[in-house]
Specification:
By secondary structure, the protein is of the alpha+beta class. It is about 45% helix and about 25% strand. It has nine helices and ten strands. Strands 1, 2, 3, 4, 5 and 10 form a six-stranded mixed sheet that branches. Strands 7-8-6-9 form a four-stranded antiparallel sheet. Helix 6 (about 125-135) crosses helix 7 (about 145-180) and helix 7 (about 145-180) runs antiparallel to helix 9 (about 215-225). The longest helix has about 35 residues, at about 145-180. The chain is elongated.
């Protein structure tokens, strides 16, 4: 096994140039396409499946991946590859460009002049349920035993109602934002551990928008104000490279 492999970040037009940031990132060109690559030590990346269990290492390398792609996306279209696309030889990188030429070319045209924006929806569920419960309990006090049963019934009904409200909010927000974007997709909401937020995430969406168009951000702000009485907040993240709107997202994480 060669000591050096080639990490592939993504694909751009062959006429692109890259600034030198001292990290070894370069282009491998093949006709109209070019792959963004950097040399890596196969002793470190060779057993990538096991490495993915090392959270500190993974966070550091994922940040490197994101940094390079965001830098390139700032000056032109890029088709980002999933984290961990590693090839043993530059000839293998050229073969990747050859075998997936039509796919990459089509993706570049789809995202040209566009960026990806993320939209997250959060809720303070206890605050929402407290508001719903107050609307249901403005009645004369019952005997202790009956009051307990009524409270439990109200709690169940409130939890169901809150879930329905959040599902409808997610659907409605997504539909409104699709009107302000070229494409959109919804993914599974992150846990609190992943989001780093105390609130519960109920919406995790991404939208492809023209780079200079701010209308989606404005719509998110307006929707956030409308949903605020329900203890709901919305936030925009990005711009990001268009991860969710290119290619086949089933690439293996392995050295090829």
């Amino acid at each position: 096994m060669s000591a050096t492999g080639w990490y592939v970040y993504g694909v751009v037009d062959a006429d692109r140039t890259l600034d030198d940031h001292g990290d070894g990132v370069r282009l491998v060109r093949d006709e109209a396409l070019a792959a963004i690559v950097a040399p890596v030590d196969l002793a470190e990346f060779g057993n990538l499946t096991e490495r993915l269990n090392d959270r500190a290492w993974l966070e550091r390398k994922a940040l490197d991946h994101e940094t390079v792609l965001s830098r390139v996306a700032g000056t032109g279209p890029v088709v980002p590859l999933r984290f961990g696309a590693i090839y043993r030889r530059l000839d293998d990188v050229s073969r990747l460009l050859e075998e997936r030429r039509d796919e990459f070319a089509s993706d570049l045209e789809r995202v040209r002049g566009c960026v990806e924006l993320g939209v997250k929806g959060f809720v303070e569920r206890s605050a929402l349920e407290d508001t719903l419960a107050r609307e249901r309990t403005a009645a004369p006090a019952a005997a202790p035993g009956r009051a307990y049963l009524e409270r439990r019934q109200v709690q169940r009904e409130v939890a169901d109602e809150a879930a329905t409200i959040l599902a409808e909010a997610a659907r409605s927000v997504h539909e409104r934002l699709l009107e302000r974007s070229l494409a959109g997709t919804v993914s599974r909401p992150h846990s609190r551990e992943l989001s780093g937020r105390a609130e519960e995430m109920f919406l995790n969406a991404a939208y492809l928008v023209p780079a200079a168009n701010e209308s989606l951000r404005g719509e998110v702000a307006a929707l956030g104000r409308a949903y605020a009485p329900l203890a709901v907040s919305l936030e925009v993240t990005g711009p990001w490279p268009p991860y969710n709107f290119v290619g086949k997202r089933d690439q293996e994480v392995a050295v090829r």
